C-alpha cells in the first residue's frame, strides 16, 4: 500500500500538483499512508486500503491525461513489485539447488516471496477495475469530466455504493463478480515465463 500511494503522489508531483508532497505522502513511511479503518479491515477481513492521495486537478497541465497517469501509477507500482518478486523467486529457486546454508535460506524465503508476488498482483489488478473508488475509475471519470463535470461527480459518488455492493458479495458469499483471481493467475504465469 505504501509504494502504491507514494507512486500516485510522486507522479502527481512530477505533473505539477504538490498536494501529496505538502501532506507528506511522497515517501515510503507507512505511517503517512495508513488509514485506520483500512488497516483494521486488513487484519479482520483479509483486505484493506490505505488513505488515498489527494490530487488537485486544477494544478495539472493536461488534466485528463495527467489524472489518468496519476491513477495508473499505483497499480503499475504493484505490478513492478510483483515482477521484481518473480525475478527474486527465480534466483532463489536457482540457489535452492545449492548445498548447505544457501539452499536452506532459499527454501525458507520462497513461500514469503510467493505471497509478496500474489498480494502485489492482486492489489495492482484489483485497482484497475473501472469502479469508484478504485484507480481504474479515474480513466472513466476523467473522460466524463471533459464534457460533463456533474455526471463525473455522480459517477464517482454512486459508483462507490456499487463498489460496496460488489465487495459485500465477494466477501460474504461464494460468488465472484470481479475476475481478479483468474487474471492474477494468468499474469503470474506470464511473468514466470518471461523471467527465465
What features would you describe in this structure?
This protein has helices spanning 2-14, 19-22, 36-45, 63-96, 101-126, 137-147, 149-172, 180-194. The relative contact order is 0.11. It contains eight helices and no strands. The protein is globular, with a radius of gyration of 19 Å. Helix content is 70%, strand content 0%. The protein is mainly alpha-helical and 196 residues long. The longest helix is centred in the middle third of the chain and has 34 residues, at 63-96.
Topology of this protein?
Elements: H1 2-14, H2 19-22, H3 36-45, H4 63-96, H5 101-126, H6 137-147, H7 149-172, H8 180-194
Helix pairs in contact: 1-4, 4-5, 4-6, 5-8, 6-7
Helix content: 55-70%
Query: How many helices does DSSP assign?
Result: 8
In whole angstroms, the N-to-C terminal distance is: 28 Å
Q: Based on CA inertia axes, which overall geometry fits?
A: globular
- Class of secondary structure makeup: mainly alpha
Mean pLDDT: 89
Keywords:
196 residues, mainly alpha
Q: How would you concisely characterize the structure shown here?
A:
The protein is mainly alpha-helical.
Amino acid at each position: 500500500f505504501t509504494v502504491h500511494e507514494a507512486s500516485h503522489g510522486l507522479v502527481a508531483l512530477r505533473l505539477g500538483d504538490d498536494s501529496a508532497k505538502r501532506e507528506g505522502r511522497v515517501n515510503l513511511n507507512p505511517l503517512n499512508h495508513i488509514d485506520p479503518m483500512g488497516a483494521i479491515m486488513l487484519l479482520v477481513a483479509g483486505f484493506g486500503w490505505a488513505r488515498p492521495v489527494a490530487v488537485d486537478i486544477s494544478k495539472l497541465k493536461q488534466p485528463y491525461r495527467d489524472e489518468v497517469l496519476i491513477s495508473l501509477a499505483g497499480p503499475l507500482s504493484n505490478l513492478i513489485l510483483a515482477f521484481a518478486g518473480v525475478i527474486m523467486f527465480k534466483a532463489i529457486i536457482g540457489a535452492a539447488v545449492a548445498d548447505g546454508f544457501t539452499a536452506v535460506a532459499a527454501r525458507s524465503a520462497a513461500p514469503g516471496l510467493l505471497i509478496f508476488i500474489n498480494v502485489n498482483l492482486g492489489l495492482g489488478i484489483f485497482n484497475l477495475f473501472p469502479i469508484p473508488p478504485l484507480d481504474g475509475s479515474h480513466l472513466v471519470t476523467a473522460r466524463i469530466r471533459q464534457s460533463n463535470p456533474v455526471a463525473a461527480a455522480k459517477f464517482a459518488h454512486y459508483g462507490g455504493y456499487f463498489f460496496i455492493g460488489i465487495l459485500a458479495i465477494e466477501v460474504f458469499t461464494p460468488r465472484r463478480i470481479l475476475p481478479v483471481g483468474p487474471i492474477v493467475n494468468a499474469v503470474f504465469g506470464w511473468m514466470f515465463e518471461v523471467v527465465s
